[in-house]
């Protein structure tokens, strides 16, 4: 039996079901290893876990968030290619545009940085945040419906970005990176609510 969680706005419904079974709402669960969106989540988590940490918050935050953004872009591209819902496709295109722009900002800032700030607590927070994203993603109800799975998993992907940005604000020194972190928190908090509202409105 696999424990799965369906997040609908502020309501959390706990469902116990085998991954190939349907529940009373006629929602069909799909094995995570057969799901296109989950593959994208796992790929970015694997890359971040394999990253060599410098323990410098500026360098590690920038590098990790670029990988994190690339994961969101991959998920958004899958939504554009395979999704059916126009509002989610517009959302996905905005994710691509915004996060590609932020990747370019990170690259520009990284080119000016030197490793002169050592903070082991920040590194541990980053690792803990990755673990939280991984665990949260692995208990979500995924159905094989691209729109549902994109909205569901992007909520947790965004939450991980918010957690990492918040950690940077507590530990980092670079004013440009602090501005990006603040923008990530503001923008992605709003986008999480938008996705949660979509899931609630489109409950099967």
Throw out a few tags for this protein:
mainly alpha; about 200 residues; disordered N terminus
Provide an overview of this structure:
By secondary structure, the protein is mainly alpha-helical. 67% of the residues lie in helices and 7% in strands. A two-stranded antiparallel ribbon has the order 1-2. A hairpin with a 2-residue loop joins strand 1 and strand 2. Helix 1 (36-50) packs parallel to helix 5 and helix 4 (120-137) runs antiparallel to helix 5. The longest helix has 27 residues, at 175-201. The model is unreliable at 1-30 (pLDDT under 50).
Itemize the secondary structure elements and their pairings.
Layout: E1 2-8, E2 11-17, H1 36-50, H2 57-82, H3 86-110, H4 120-137, H5 146-171, H6 175-201
Antiparallel strand pairs: 1-2
Helix pairs in contact: 1-2, 1-4, 1-5, 2-3, 2-5, 3-6, 4-5, 5-6
Can you write the helix and strand succession as a string? Answer: EEHHHHHH
Report the biggest beta sheet as strand number plus sense, adding barrel if it closes. 2 strands, antiparallel
- Strand portion, in percent? 5-15%
Termini separation? 22 Å
Radius of gyration: 17 Å
Helix vs. strand class: mainly alpha
């Amino acid at each position: 039996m696999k424990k799965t969680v369906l997040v609908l706005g502020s309501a959390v419904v706990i469902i116990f079901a085998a991954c190939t079974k349907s529940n009373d709402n006629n929602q069909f669960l799909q094995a995570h290893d057969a799901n296109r969106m989950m593959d994208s989540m796992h790929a970015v988590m694997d890359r971040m876990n394999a990253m060599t940490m410098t323990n410098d918050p500026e360098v590690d935050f920038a590098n990790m968030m670029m990988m994190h953004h690339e994961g969101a872009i991959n998920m958004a591209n899958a939504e554009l290619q395979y999704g059916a819902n126009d509002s989610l496709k517009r959302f996905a295109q905005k994710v691509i545009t915004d996060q590609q722009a932020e990747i370019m900002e990170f690259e520009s800032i990284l080119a000016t940085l030197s490793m002169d700030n050592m903070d082991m607590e920040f590194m541990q927070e980053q690792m803990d945040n990755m673990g939280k994203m991984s665990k949260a993603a692995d208990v979500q109800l995924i159905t094989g419906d691209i729109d549902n799975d994109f909205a569901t998993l992007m909520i947790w992907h965004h939450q991980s970005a918010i957690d990492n940005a918040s950690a940077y604000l507590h530990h980092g020194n670079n004013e440009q990176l602090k501005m990006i972190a603040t923008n990530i928190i503001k923008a992605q908090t709003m986008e999480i609510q938008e996705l949660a509202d979509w899931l609630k409105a489109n409950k099967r």
